[in-house]
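Hey, why these numbers?
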Amino acid sequence: MVGTGFVSLKEAENLCAVSAKTLRGWIGEEGMPLHHLAEEISIHWKDLHRCLLRRGLPVPASLESGPR
């Protein structure tokens, strides 16, 4: 996870063990804002955390308390 509090879409796919298509669907359904950081498209860890909780999915340990 990037120290800025953002997770690249690739990192989010890996953390959540979902496909890019699934993650893009969640982003659209949840209305998560996208951010362009370090030449990557990213989402804020809190947005991903809330999304997983709303869906009743397990939250990876690295998303429990944010960036370290």
The chain has a mean pLDDT of 89. Helices lie at 9-16, 20-30, 45-54, 61-64. The beta strands are 6-8, 35-37, 40-44. The first strand starts at residue 6 and ends at 8.
